[in-house]
Design goal:
The protein is mainly α. Helices cover about 70% and strands about 0% of the residues.
Length: about 240
């Protein structure tokens, strides 16, 4: 138990190993099922409410258990363990969205939660394999984030509009400025990877250096938001049922 919940393990994570491929399969399967059965899910109130609170519980328990792990092992610090990365913020906005079902939280969660969380699943910055708590926390959390964000959008498909693209993008830019000019410098943190790249190879590794890195981040985010909006309204929106 100590090694499973401790800070070390003899079992190290290997990208695209059997355990990694299995969790990727589960994550993709969940997305397919949500989209494929979306009208049934939102037509049956009990099923909708059950999934709603399961997703909320997964997000909340993942974050609380991670904070408990860092504190109990004496490694918690503000610079590394506050949920200020994009996936952490998406988890929080998704939980608020699941609680309130308000359009603004659904819009924010949809645009900032699905793609970043899936990229994190494919290229995880993770030290240990399935023999350790960190493996399960990471993959349960980063699987539940896109599921919850998609679930919210499917519940109210009219919330995803072209206007919401620019609304969320401007909010993201404002958040990045606060993180980049205040939080990171004052706490020696690297939230949003604005100070340096992740330890593993990710798409961020190809964004260049200096000012080009930040410009490419912003342009890519806006293009991804626009692509999400196009795909949503082209293939999902018109055939989805609306919640009353």
């Amino acid at each position: 138990m100590e090694s499973w919940f401790g800070t070390t393990s003899q079992y190290y994570f290997t990208p695209f190993s059997t355990s990694h491929l299995l969790v990727l399969f589960v994550a993709v399967l969940g997305i397919i099922l949500l989209i494929g059965f979306r009208n049934h899910i939102f037509r049956v109130s009990r099923l909708f409410q059950t999934l709603r609170w399961i997703l909320f519980s997964l997000l909340l328990s993942s974050e609380v258990s991670y904070q408990y792990w860092t504190i109990s092992n004496g490694i918690w610090n503000f610079a590394g363990h506050v949920p200020l990365h994009l996936c952490g913020i998406a988890s929080i906005t998704a939980m608020i969205g699941l609680l309130t079902m308000q359009r603004s939280w659904i819009q924010i969660s949809f645009f900032i939660g699905i793609v970043p969380a899936f990229l994190a699943l494919v290229t995880p910055d993770l030290p240990y394999d399935y023999h350790h708590f960190r493996f399960w926390k990471f993959f349960v959390h980063h699987t539940a984030i896109p599921w919850a964000c998609l679930f919210l959008a499917l519940a109210k498909p009219d919330a995803i509009t072209l206007r919401s693209v620019f609304k969320v993008f401007l909010l993201l830019v404002a958040y990045a400025l606060v993180i980049g000019y205040a939080v990171n410098p004052l706490t020696a943190a690297n939230y949003l990877y604005l100070m340096q790249l992740p330890n593993t190879v990710t798409p961020l590794s190809f964004f260049g250096d200096g000012i080009w890195y930040y410009l490419n981040l912003g342009i890519t985010a806006l293009l991804l938001f626009l692509l999400q909006n196009f795909l949503w309204n082209r293939y999902i929106h018109k055939s989805s049922k609306r919640l009353p």
